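Case study B.
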Amino acid sequence: MIRLTRRAFLRSSAGGALAVAGLSGCRTGAGEIAPTAARRVVVVGGGWGGATAARYLRMADPSVEVLLLEPSTRFVSCPFSNLVLSGVRSIGTLTFDYRGLRERGVDVRHEPALALEPDRHRVRLAGGYLRYDRVIVSPGVEFQWEQVDGLSNARDTVLHAWKAGPQTVALAGQLQDLHDGGVVVMTVPPAAYRCPPGPYERACQIAWYLKTRKPRSKLIVLDANPSIVSKAGLFQAAWRAYPNLEYRASNKVVKVDPARREVTTEFGDTVRYDVVNLIPPQRAGTIAVEAGLVGNDRRWCEVDHVTYESVKARDVHVVGDATIGLPVPKSGTIANAMGKIAAVNVANLLNGRAAAPMAPLNTCYSWVSDREVVAVVNAYRIAGGKVVQIEQKLTPGPSTVWADHAVAWATSIWSDILG
Amino acid sequence: MAERAPTPARWLAAAAGLLLLVAAPAAGGPLDGPGYTKALACSACHGQGGNSRTEATPVLAGMPTWYFKKAIEDYASGRRLSPEMEPFAKMVRQQGVDDVAAYFAAQPREKLALEIDRAAAARGRTAARPCAACHGEDGYGDERRGIPSLRGQPPGYLRNQLLLFRADRRSPGEPALVSVKAMLKSFDDATLADLAAYYASLGR
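Model:
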């Protein structure tokens, strides 16, 4: 038995108290990364929503320390990345760095946020913790690999190319290597997923590429949904230029067999391919799921429509594709708008001001050939604390005019996001 | 009234006051002003504080409120056809066009971040002589007559608008614009591009 002197007892309890304080997030505790300002906001994820939020928070209140956690040193734009598959654009024209955000005072750290602990107001990193006053989570989407039999073990060869980057380039390479007369199969996941018109734009780009470069090849689109999810009339009209495109609605793919080069639908039909592009079902990024920010669907995060604060956790705001419940698409423009609105209202709340009702807006351009574009536009307002759509408008048909506008939009919004 | 000699201290105070005056607008960022919450989303296409960086999108920074409001009304009513701007114009109208107009009017206009073809601008200067009757020698326009400034807008945007006017696709049938549209019919596409380069080159 160890007998403690009164002095030793005091010393050890003080140590214990310190350890407990450290765990509960004392600023001086072990593993804490010391703040550089009175208030700190951590932004998790440097995509369209997160990078925008970080930049606008610095504009809304320069006295707030803003830390952005993003493992990748490069920002690669998903919008326009379907053009890489058809060889119309190079991935380099869609790739940017985070210098602009750093110049605007954002502390950009290229490391992953390992976990979010809302109860302790902190984000766990490999080398310690970041305490926050508020956190903006922009985790994007994660794939539900397990929903397609055989996919988990074939992630490196059965490509999604649904997060722009190496997979985009690899899929373009597979299409280039395809023999003339080969069959390309692409799958559309069940809604909701990132970028509703994206798969149909991709179908246009692959069909355009095959038509111009491999005219005896064909593309089969297996759509899990009962019909085209977005801009249906515009895509149907555009597809008249692509007799090499075969569209099959209500054909949910549940199995892939890379050895036999075939996919199987839920009705048991098998379709053979030479190149497959399997876009898996999706949910919110893993950090949001593990932090309990998703609802009963276990997929998406419900938020307040004005502040983007999670309905599940205080002082945690969620923006971008991971959100659900607003009448908005999972688009880049929407993520950008959410990032701005969340940033301004986080600054308002940090300064004891009321949140300001601000409505997002959406523009979404889809390339239906190498030079023609169609678009959908959505305007919203806030009514009774909820986002309500005022109007949706489509372009009358494909045009090079909208292509000019698409390029202008991309140029402008990339600059709006990254500085 | 007794005149007081300017002591060094007074000079310093005056200079400091002047500095404050000069510094005040510079300190105003794109998130200042009561209208910013209603204009926040616009920067995706129109740039920070309405300083467009692209050919297709007009500069809104420093735009007079009367012309901004006219543009919103024209887009919302379809007098200016734009599948993009029609819904957004209705959105601006619902939010309160006065606040949004005041926000953009108060934003400092930056130097246009676009290449301008100097040779085209020089040709356009000559071709623009007939335009001066309404838009003024320097393209400032005349608010009392409802004639907008053409200065410092992106050349691509100005050229597109000239093409739309010439084809009577912008404000179709508008009586006040019949003569200017007739005049534009005598200009070929290249001359319209020259005019656009000229007015774009003038700065604000």
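The radius of gyration of chain B is 20 Å. The remaining cases will be described in the next quarterly update.
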